[in-house]
Structures are given as structure tokens and as C-alpha cells.
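[job 4471] stage=fold_predict status=RUNNING
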Amino acid sequence: MIIDKNTIKDEILAIKNGNVVQGLRIGIPEIDEFYRLKLNGSLDIYAGHAGVGKTSFCLYLMTLFAQKYDLKFIVWSSENTPGSIAQKIIEYKMGKPIDTSSETDIEQAIDWTDHHFKILKVEEVCTYKDVLTQILGIHNALPSAAAFIDPYNSLAKPKEEMKAYGAHELDYMIASEMRLFAEKHKITLMVSMHGVTESSRKVHPITHPMAGFPMPLSYSQVEGGVKWANRCSNFFVCHRYFQSKDKWNIMELHVLKVKEYISGGRPTALDAPISVKMLPNNVGYEFGGVNLMGEQKTQKQFYFDLFFNRNFSHCIDRRSH
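[job 4471] inference complete, writing C-alpha cells
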């Protein structure tokens, strides 16, 4: 189909007049410069080594955006039980562990979680088609901002398609179909990925401050290789030196690819990822002493003016500069 001239004109004038829909901000300028949550049809990869906490961190990001923008999310996770997922969301929402919370606070957080999250129970091995069908069923009934698929590595590849295409071409096809699905149904897909076996052998050299520790993943070290970077809208790497006595509680977010800079965000420098510190009891994260939830400051030396519009049309950011 040939695109209509008026459609092109509308898009170009939107750029000229500063009316491009912006990715959602967390509210910390040093983070927002690089990371945004893009809605309405983005395919975003969140990669990381086993054990770094990428599932928990992605759940935190979803809780954060649900809190700030009143969004709804769908969670499909084959490696975590619905109960454990709900527990993390509830604790992130309350900002404290369940065992120290009152029953009233817990009940309110459960109600909030049920309203903003639909968690799928995974009872059998699924293909990507199975998962997308489940997501679409919920999205059609309860329109959602994004769906989290965790992890891609656990999805079975259809046998007939494996025979017809082979693993390499099938990965390309799945990536393309996921992207088209997101665009068609106006829902962002957040897909987590483990690294391949070889990636765990890549450690920092002796001259590096973290010598001997596993290096953050690169494009080529995820399941299926660099083709996912080619097909996705945005590519992020979650990394944590969890065996370090000093940096075990620092989560790094490496922004490797941002398809559209005009809607916000850009890649981080190789040696300067976004670094956030885990709060005590792993009930959230802070940056520069500021709780990312924006409800309280954990240190007095940093103050940021956080402004958010809670309507779903909140994402339009008219540039004044």
C-alpha cells in the first residue's frame, strides 16, 4: 500500500510544530535523557544474564509507570509463579516488604495490582503464537499499555515452521511478527531475553575495575543473536554485579538502541549506563538519593521537581525549545 501524501504531511508538520508523541518519562532528567517507555506499538528487548534481576526490574518499571500514568499491563512469565510476580508488584507499590505491612495496606495494594496488572498463569509450554493470542484476548477486553513476555528463551518454536524455515530464519520471522503485532494492536511488547552460554564466559579484563566479573550482554549475545537488535524498536540490557560485595545492589540499564530519537531517549555511553540503587529489602530503586516512585526522597541532598499528567493522552510533549 502506497502511503498517502496527506499522511506524510501530517507527520512532518507534527515534527515541525513539536507535536510528536513522546515516550513516557520517569521524571529524573538524567534517566529520561536516555530511557523512555514508548507506547502504541513498540517492540522492546530487555536482555540480561541469569540472576541479575531483569524480571524484577522490568516488573518495577511497569509498576512505576502504572503508578505515575495509571496504565495497565499484561504479564506472561514462564519462570515465575503468578503469586511471586504479584508479591513483587505489591511490595514495589507499597515501598515495603509484605511481612512488615499492615493487612489494610496489603489489601489496598492487592486491589491496585488487580486493577493495573493481568498476570497469566503459564501451565504448559507455549509458542510465540500461543502467547500473542493470550495477550490479544486480554488486550481486546481490557486495553493495556504493554505486555511483558518473560523470557523469549522459554518459548517453544513451532515444529512445522522450524522445518520450513530453520532456526535462524524462524527467529527473524518471529521478531517481525511480534513487531507487526505490536504496531497493529497498539500495544508495546516488552520481551526479556537471556544470554547464550558463551556470553557468561565474557568477563572484564584485568585492567577493568570489575576485572573477572561477567560483562554486560551485547546485541549478539542474546538468544537468536543480533537479528533481534535489527528488528526491535529499542534494545536494553539489565546488568548487576550481584557477586560483588560493593556493587551487588546497583542495577545498570544499558540503552543500546533507540529507533526514534525524536520521541525521546538515546543510547547510553558504553562506560556510563543508567545506574540505580536497590532500596533496602529490594522494594524499589533510587537515583541520586531520590526514590523513583516520586513519593519520598531517600536523601536530602537531591531535589527534583517531578511533574506528571495522569491522563492516557499524557504522552504528548510540546517542545518549547
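[job 4471] summary: Residues 159-185 form the longest helix (27 residues).
[job 4471] exit 0
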